[in-house]
Amino acid sequence: MIKLQKIRDERLKMKNLQNIRTAYILQTIGILGILAYDWITKGIEGMTKNPLWFVFILTAVISAFLSLDISVAHEDSEKSPNKGLIVSLAVLVLISFCIGYLNTLGEELNLKNGFILGGVVFICGLIPILYIYYLRKKSNDEHSDEE
Amino acid sequence: MKNNLKVARVQVNLTQQQLAEKVGVTRQTISLIEKGKYNPTLKLCLEICYAVNKTLDEIFWIERESDKIAKN
């Protein structure tokens, strides 16, 4: 019987991570294949009803958030994170206001829907903006430690 | 990467297995390091140096090719 134990060897840990990556790639291909099949046979609605769609979107969002850490590390500008935060917040408020406003137009005056949609867009945009701010702030602090 | 681990290990009378147990890795990893086929982390390099009573540069230092040519 194979004895299962915690891996302590750094080389095997790395190998293990590489194996997980391979499995993840295959799994994603499988999920995409199933979703593509659903799309062809049942149309877009049938595809999005599949719980695998939720899994796919969730992992895509998580991987996008995790890769933000890498994008921030790539930035080499000295600009302050506060300025970036203010600019992105201003743009976000403008965009969510526009979307909310556009939604109130239409056949009937639909103020509630406009507020809800604008609010959802605002919150969805706010989370990544705050996360990027936090990452930039962190890398800025680490940078200033060096000097 | 080339290194002097094998010589240092034999000098202190350790087998690959014994060294592996001392530093907490598998024998295969030690073997791959000796052959220069695995690039260990600095942490593992230090552990190995402590185990064979050598300094980092005695085991892992290699001169730059251009410096070698300049010396000759």
TrEMBL record, chain A:
It comes from the Bacteria. The keyword Transmembrane applies. Keywords: Membrane, Transmembrane, Transmembrane helix. The chain crosses the membrane at residues 21-40, 52-72, 84-102, 114-134. This is Branched-chain amino acid ABC transporter substrate-binding protein.
TrEMBL record, chain B:
It comes from the Bacteria. Pfam families: HTH_3. Keywords: DNA-binding. Coiled coil: none annotated. Signal peptide: none annotated. SMART domains: HTH_XRE (SM00530). Residues 5-59 form the HTH cro/C1-type domain. The keyword DNA-binding applies. The keyword DNA-binding applies. One of its GO terms (molecular function) is DNA binding. PANTHER family: TRACRIPTIONAL REGULATORY PROTEIN-RELATED-RELATED (PTHR46558), TRANSCRIPTIONAL REGULATOR (PTHR46558:SF3). This is HTH cro/C1-type domain-containing protein. It comes from Caldibacillus thermoamylovorans. The lineage of its organism: Bacteria, Bacillati, Bacillota, Bacilli, Bacillales.
